[in-house]
Amino acid sequence: MEPQADSTDADEAADAAQDATEPQADAGKPETDEAAKRAVEPQADSTDAEAGQNAEVEDGASGAGGEVGATGDVRLRDAVAAWVASADETAEAEDAAREPAQDEADAEANQTSDTGTAAPDSGTDTGTPKKGDESPGDAKPPVDQPTAVFKAVRPSAPAVDQPTTTLKLGDAAKPAGDKAESPAERTSKFVALKPLEDPATRRPAPKAPDATTALPQVTQEPKAKPPADATSSVPQVGPERTTQQPLPPRPPLDLLAELTNTPPPPETPVRTIVRRVKIWTPLVLLLAVVFAIVQAVRPLPSPELTLTADESYTFEGSRASLPWPSEGQGWMDVNGIGTMGDFGKQTPVAIGSVAKAMTAYVVLKDHPLKSGAEGPNVPVDATAEKEGGYNKDGESTLNTVKAGDKLTLRQAIAAIMIPSANNIARLLARWDAGNEADFIKKMNDAAADLGMKNTTYTDASGLKETTVSTAEDQVKLGNELVKMPALMEITSMGEWIDPSGQKVYNYNYLVPYNGAIGIKTGTTTKAGGNLLFAARKEVGGETVTLVGAILGQHKAPIIQTVNDVSKTAMLGAQDELVSAKILKKGDVVGYVDDGLGGQTPVVLTKDVTAVGWAGFKVQLSFDADDLPHTAKAGTKVGTLTVGDGSNGAVKVPVALQRDLVEPAYTDKLTRLG
């Protein structure tokens, strides 16, 4: 270690100095003493113990002469061993206790300094004589040698690494009573101390000694002993620690003014406006960006087909006048186009067997019958067989059926529509609904669905006079019946062969002439003659169907009278029908509206020919398909309907005139709805 190297250098320097000063034999001259004192003075910055030892060694050197060089090595080793042992004991005591108080450490240091320092003029050590010391009587004449040997410049102490501290043990570590030692006998020991537990109790590391310092002195203040009482106050070491709640953020301008040590400018309306603009402008820009994105990804509205052509067309000429009878009430429609004419007050009256038209409608709605098919079997029960004999009382029946027989649905419908068999009408009611009462309820429900507001059914055959209706309501029912091909195949027959092989004739004398196709007659004494009829006619390449009803004909024979007046009205209506070309192929009749202002024109794919009569106003309407957002030109997008939309109306497809494209981004961005 470096401290041992220092002692060796001191011995070599002492020998060299002795050789150099041997010619100078007068060791007792005052100049030599003064030189020795001046050599020791630079070491006055060391501890008091070192000063005492230097003085003792100087005196010893003057008195003992050459004995210093002879005994220096032995005494130096003994001193080093004593200091090492003392340092070890001190370190062990600190590790065991670790609670020395500051005042006790200071007192111990002072006491050690007092007991380990010899008087300057004593010439002997205050401690116990060490091995190798000679008695004063045996001492040789003193040899005058320069004291500069003790002032040999030693290397400066290395910087102390933290958290360890270099500790130099001085005279304070010597046991009391030891003889004072010369500087050549002194050495130092570096002890690495353990880091203190509390960094706040550490003192700054001592400054490194300069080159003129003989031995660097590094001290460390012992750790303060904590108070025994836990409730006693603890001395504050270092800056006071406080707990403070966080302050609210300061305005940016005030914080900037504090950082730059510049006070904020005074508040003015202009500065307030500028600050608000700076704050709100980014927010407004952010909202604008969000709004633009939302507008771009919003679902597009559903396109709509809009009609630009005239919504109606009126045929030339004055309104047609039909040849109606002088009594009763009547109504005439062109199926799917409109009403041609009517007469009489539309008040509910008894309709007789015309009620069987509703019976057939309800049964065929529940059990659809295909054209030309016979349909399911209808078992004949005992009641139907019994009621077949009511023909003797004037009822129209099918008296050839027996219990256990089976009629096909087609045969049963023919039996009620041609010979008007009451017993089969009641049989169908029981077969369809389980009993007649439930079936009658179904008849009235169907009438309500068709808008027959002045109609009431009380039986399935119409025999009861409480079953009432109007000509207008019966035409509403007839417009639905003509849509059932299987039924029209039956009602258009002039005669029918029953299951027994007997031929029966249709009471509707209009069929099969002049395009007549039925539908049902009904006559009673109170109701008079009644007829719901239909006829077809081809007009302008289109086939149209007339549906009419005449009620309350009491002129006998009533069945003949109602057929005659119905034929006259039917033929008159057929004569009034005309055709007119109202639109041509390629005409723009509307557009597809994309919902954001974009409009793509649509055109007709063929000529539009309407059927009507003089003075009649026909309605035009669009029926849109499932419209896409994009499509090529010529794509069908809907249908133009001329009439009321039901069977018999003229329907023409419409297509895009040019490509259908999605709305532009600017249109998406500016939409508000």
UniProtKB/TrEMBL annotation:
<feature type="compositionally biased region" description="Basic and acidic residues">
    <location>
        <begin position="176"/>
        <end position="188"/>
    </location>
</feature>
<protein>
    <recommendedName>
        <fullName>serine-type D-Ala-D-Ala carboxypeptidase</fullName>
        <ecNumber>3.4.16.4</ecNumber>
    </recommendedName>
</protein>
<feature type="domain" description="Peptidase S11 D-alanyl-D-alanine carboxypeptidase A N-terminal">
    <location>
        <begin position="346"/>
        <end position="538"/>
    </location>
</feature>
<dbReference type="InterPro" id="IPR001967">
    <property type="entry name" value="Peptidase_S11_N"/>
</dbReference>
<dbReference type="Pfam" id="PF00768">
    <property type="entry name" value="Peptidase_S11"/>
</dbReference>
<dbReference type="InterPro" id="IPR012338">
    <property type="entry name" value="Beta-lactam/transpept-like"/>
</dbReference>
<feature type="compositionally biased region" description="Basic and acidic residues">
    <location>
        <begin position="383"/>
        <end position="395"/>
    </location>
</feature>
<feature type="compositionally biased region" description="Low complexity">
    <location>
        <begin position="15"/>
        <end position="27"/>
    </location>
</feature>
<feature type="domain" description="Peptidase S11 D-Ala-D-Ala carboxypeptidase A C-terminal">
    <location>
        <begin position="581"/>
        <end position="660"/>
    </location>
</feature>
<keyword id="KW-0961">Cell wall biogenesis/degradation</keyword>
<feature type="region of interest" description="Disordered">
    <location>
        <begin position="373"/>
        <end position="397"/>
    </location>
</feature>
<dbReference type="InterPro" id="IPR012907">
    <property type="entry name" value="Peptidase_S11_C"/>
</dbReference>
<keyword id="KW-0645">Protease</keyword>
<keyword id="KW-0378">Hydrolase</keyword>
<keyword id="KW-0133">Cell shape</keyword>
<keyword id="KW-0573">Peptidoglycan synthesis</keyword>
<feature type="compositionally biased region" description="Basic and acidic residues">
    <location>
        <begin position="28"/>
        <end position="40"/>
    </location>
</feature>
<dbReference type="GO" id="GO:0004180">
    <property type="term" value="F:carboxypeptidase activity"/>
</dbReference>
<feature type="region of interest" description="Disordered">
    <location>
        <begin position="1"/>
        <end position="70"/>
    </location>
</feature>
<comment type="similarity">
    <text>Belongs to the peptidase S11 family.</text>
</comment>
<dbReference type="Pfam" id="PF07943">
    <property type="entry name" value="PBP5_C"/>
</dbReference>
<feature type="region of interest" description="Disordered">
    <location>
        <begin position="86"/>
        <end position="264"/>
    </location>
</feature>
<keyword id="KW-0732">Signal</keyword>
<keyword id="KW-0121">Carboxypeptidase</keyword>
<dbReference type="InterPro" id="IPR018044">
    <property type="entry name" value="Peptidase_S11"/>
</dbReference>
<comment type="pathway">
    <text>Cell wall biogenesis; peptidoglycan biosynthesis.</text>
</comment>
